[in-house]
Amino acid sequence: MNQLKSRIIALTAAVGLTVGLDQWTKQLALNHLQGQPDVYYLNEILRLTFVRNTGAFLSLGSDLGPVLRPLLLNAFPAILLIALLVYIFREKSLNLWQTVALSLIVGGGLSNIIDRLLYGHVVDMLHLRVGSLQTGIFNVADMAIMAGMFMMLPFVFRKDPEKPQVAQEAEA
Q1: Strand 133-134 vs strand 122-130: parallel, antiparallel, or unpaired?
Q2: C-alpha distance across the termini of the chain, in Å
Q3: Contact 40, 79 (CB under 8 A)
Q4: Of the candidates 47, 51, 46, 21, the residue with the CA atom closest to the CA atom of residue 34
Q5: Residue-wise DSSP of the chain
Q6: How confident is the model at residue 60, as a pLDDT?
Q7: How many CB atoms lie within 10 A of CB 28?
Q8: What is the pLDDT of residue 137?
Q9: Where are the transmembrane segments (predicted)?
Q10: What is the pLDDT of residue 26?
Q11: Beta bridge partners of 39
Q12: Among candidate residues 132, 146, 144, the one with its CA nearest the CA of residue 45
């Protein structure tokens, strides 16, 4: 299978699964958590709750005005996602792992943008707490974005092998 076809399959699968699972869990939260008491699992490590988040991650930007909020929370992320899609298709050195990682970021970002455009907010419902450590309230799209970022970490900090001295002199 050629590289472009593999990327299209990986991108479609990762984005489709991310958006589908995120939208499904948000619908479950709307139907079963909205207006209800929080639900705890795993000895209160996992809390299911219902929050309408008008901002970005951890509600950042929720107090922005009606002009700035759509620009910073819809237009800017949409431009970044388009740039990421262009990068996925143009960068020849990406392997399948990197393609899936970047596609998870695209899927998570796209799903949250869909919510903001349709409803003016994003539904968050997951909260983790272990002892005094805790997360903000998040959703499946946020998990996909974070998973994609963590999957890319080894490649971001990897050093390219140095060229042999002879090759460097020949290039000069």
Answers
A1: antiparallel
A2: 38
A3: no
A4: 51
A5: --HHHHHHHHHHHHHHHHHHHHHHHHHHHHHHTTTS--EEETTTTEEEEEEEE-SSGGGTTTTS-TTHHHIIIIIHHHHHHHHHHHHHHH-TT--HHHHHHHHHHHHHHHHHHHHHHHHSSEEEEEEEEETTEE---B-HHHHHHHHHHHHHHHHHSPPPPPPPHHHHHHH-
A6: 62
A7: 13
A8: 94
A9: 71-89, 96-114, 134-157
A10: 98
A11: 48
A12: 132
With vertex at residue 80, the alpha carbon angle to CA 75 and CA 85, rounded to the nearest 5 degrees, is: 125
**Owner of token pair 């699992």:** 41
Q: What is the pLDDT of residue 149?
A: 96
Query: From CA 157, how far away is CA 152, in angstroms rounded?
Result: 9
107 exposure class (CB count in 10 Å sphere: 0-12, 13-18, 19+): buried
CA distance 149 to 101: 7
Give me the count of residues in the chain: 172
Q: CA 28 to CA 22: how far, in whole Å?
A: 10
Q: Label residue 167 exposed, middle or buried (CB < 10 Å: 0-12, 13-18, 19+).
A: exposed
Residues of the chain with pLDDT under 70: 1, 57-69, 160-172
- Closest CA relative to residue 141, chosen from 124, 117, 128, 120: 124
Give the number of other Cβ atoms within 10 Å of residue 12's Cβ.
12
Which residues have a catalytic role annotated?
124, 142
